Amino acid sequence: MAHGNGGAGGDRSYWRNVHEQLGVHLSKMTLSDIHSKMLVRQLERLEQKRDALKKKGADSNGDGKDSGDGKRKGLPDGVSEEFGNDEQEMGEADEITQANTKKSYSWQRKYKGRKPRYFNRVKTGYDWNKYNQTHYDHDNPPPKIVQGYKFNIFYPELVDPTKTPQYFIETADSDEFCIIRFHGGAPYEDIAFKIINKEWNRSRKRGFKCSFQRGILSVCFNFKSHWYRR
Predict the structure, then answer these.
(1) Better-predicted residue by pLDDT, 164 or 58
(2) This prediction's pTM
(3) Residues 146, 221: Cα–Cα separation, whole Å
(4) Which residues contact 194 (CB under 8 A, 6 or more apart)?
């Protein structure tokens, strides 16, 4: 009888320890996510300051001519270039699950695969094409459209950190969309998202970025626009 009571007490102690360790583990995951997002925002602020300094130097040394990458002309009265621009965080609902093609990796016998964490955002705004300029204005803007994306995929524990993670563009079930797939290497599994299928503007001055720093793969881009063709 005494042995039975001791066993029950031991079970309670065991599960209490498991519960406490689970709480600690979940807290560490939450802190890791917060730290990762703060790191992304810090890197973005530093890049914005650097770009602002470059632009200031170019403006002071330039002749004032428009190179085509500056502020767009032809916007309606009272509408700035940034008017209505917004960013929304992407979540698990935006992921593409590749259940039909269970991907295998050459390293999966040696390492336990894991899905990388990410901090992704979709950029929306107004398209001031000639039709919208005629029919809409500041007080009555046109419907918002997706203008670009910001992907930040975290690979802090790559087995081979000398190999830079990559992204690939693949076809989707509709021509209106495509799939962007990120490949980091062991021990991270590939992760993919469905995005709008439009041509990217690959000019850094228009927001394009593809870099791998401090374990973060950043791919940011805006779509090309042909708003003011003559």
Answers:
(1) 164
(2) 0.66
(3) 11
(4) 94, 96, 172, 177, 178, 179
